[in-house]
Amino acid sequence: MKADIHPNYPAVEVTCSCGNKFETRSTFGKALAIDVCNECHPFYTGKQKTLDTGGRVQKFADRFGAFGAKKA
Ligand SMILES: [Zn+2]
């Protein structure tokens, strides 16, 4: 590798909102907090799930009534 042209690419810990943790490398250089990962994304689990980030689904249900979203 050529000297002094490559960015710092350290190992970082990634924490998902489902509790899953794994390590990767990133030029970001800090621990990452993510909403969805390969352990909990419906594409990989095969189960349908409403990804309710920040209560947005509930906000929609409050505003437009019961168009499908169930109250928790
Ligand atoms: Zn996850």
TrEMBL record:
In the record, the note on similarity to other proteins reads:
Belongs to the bacterial ribosomal protein bL31 family. Type A subfamily.
Q: How is the cofactor bound?
A: Binds 1 zinc ion per subunit.
Q: Which residues bind Zn(2+)?
A: C16, C18, C37, C40
Function statement? Binds the 23S rRNA.
Question: How does the record describe its quaternary structure?
Answer: Part of the 50S ribosomal subunit.
Say if the entry is tagged with keyword Lyase.
Answer: no
Q: Report keywords, A-Z.
A: Metal-binding, Ribonucleoprotein, Ribosomal protein, RNA-binding, rRNA-binding, Zinc
GO BP terms: namely: translation
The record's listing under InterPro entries reads: Ribosomal_bL31 (IPR002150), Ribosomal_bL31_A (IPR027491)
Q: What is this protein called?
A: Large ribosomal subunit protein bL31
One GO cellular component, as annotated: ribonucleoprotein complex
Keyword Ribonucleoprotein listed? The answer is yes
Report the cofactors.
Answer: Zn(2+)
Fetch the NCBIfam families from UniProt: L31, PRK00019.1, PRK00528.1
**Cross-referenced PANTHER family, in alphabetical order?**
50S RIBOSOMAL PROTEIN L31, CHLOROPLASTIC, LARGE RIBOSOMAL SUBUNIT PROTEIN BL31A
Q: Which residues form the signal peptide?
A: none
Q: Name one GO molecular function term.
A: rRNA binding
Superkingdom of the source species: Bacteria
UniProt source species: Pseudomonas koreensis
